[in-house]
Design brief:
The chain has 262 residues and is α/β, with parallel strands linked by helices. The protein contains 10 helices and 9 strands. It has a single domain, classed as TIM Barrel. An 8-stranded parallel barrel has the order 1-2-3-4-5-6-7-8, surrounded by 6 helices. The chain is globular. The relative contact order is 0.16. Bound molecules: phosphoenolpyruvate and manganese (II) ion. The site of manganese (II) ion has 4 residues, from loops.
Length: 262
């Protein structure tokens, strides 16, 4: 019998021969969308569902996420499928409530140097996924992880998600070189989010494959049951079929980099 997913997740911290998929919608919209996503991800062997209830949006008029009430949706999908859920915390005041449900706490790109938030998540008993600030150097990201680890939490994953450069053909520039550099300098899993740098669906798969070939320990991918109708980032979210095809391609690359799916 397969170990419970929570124990399985710890394997990503113990050795670098595992590959973790985290996938699901950009944002939680409603129960039906999340149930469909959780079932699909479970059927593909994806252990962690993106379950974002608070969305950091540049434009305050845009969809800001369903908010704390979304925790009920997360509880339901966890109970129904056994999948683990990750969600970003934007405001320390919600951390305690989110911790009752979320299996991994996400610190987003914009909060990568929110030092009081980093100290708070350093004191929790759950893994933390921290994304690189899109204006931050690799060294600054490493210093941010130290704010977490010095409080005692060393279950940290770091994510390269693209940085701001002069290049505007894509949404952000995926820094592929950050993968080997971070792996050399940190003893934490290094994941890549190919969705936000791509900005458009057609670029997501090539970036994901490049990251896998460069030795990433996992991918965090935006996948939606009906991407054109998504309330946020609709242009970059993969359909279920597109994501299934990506999983198959990544699986075939993993032996080349000495990894297997978690
Ligand atoms: C996200 O992954 O939900 C997100 C908001 O991405 P980022 O923080 O990298 O912009
Ligand atoms: Mn998004």
């Amino acid at each position: 019998m397969m170990a419970p997913t929570r124990d399985r997740l710890n394997e990503i911290f113990e050795s670098r021969d595992k590959f973790l998929f985290i996938a699901g919608p950009c944002a939680v919209e409603d129960l039906n969308q999340m149930e469909q996503s959780a079932r699909k991800m479970t059927s593909l062997g994806v252990p962690v569902l993106r379950s974002e209830i608070f969305k950091p949006r540049t434009n305050p008029d845009y969809f800001q996420g369903v908010g704390i009430s979304g925790l009920e949706i997360l509880k339901r999908v966890k109970k129904e499928t056994g999948i683990l859920v990750i969600t970003e915390v934007l405001d320390i005041r919600y951390l305690e409530d989110v911790l009752k449900v979320a299996d991994i706490i996400q610190v987003g790109s914009r909060n990568s140097q929110n030092f009081s938030l980093l100290r708070e998540v350093g004191n929790i008993d759950k893994p933390v996924l921290i994304k690189r600030g899109f204006g931050n150097t690799i060294d600054e990201l490493i210093q941010s992880t130290r704010y977490i680890s010095r409080e005692g939490n060393d279950r940290i994953m770091v994510v390269e998600r693209g940085i701001r450069t002069f290049e505007h053909s894509v949404r952000f520039t995926l820094d592929v070189a950050a993968i080997p550099v971070l792996k050399e300098r940190l003893d934490y899993p290094v994941l890549v989010d190919p969705s936000h740098p791509a900005g458009r669906r057609k670029y997501v798969v090539p970036l994901a494959l490049a990251a896998t070939a460069a030795g990433a320990d996992g991918l965090m991918v935006e996948v939606h049951p009906d991407p054109p109708r998504a309330k946020s980032d609709s242009e970059q979210q993969l359909s279920f079929d597109e994501f299934s095809a990506l999983v198959a391609k990544v699986k075939s690359l993993l032996p080349l980099v000495g990894k297997r799916l978690l």
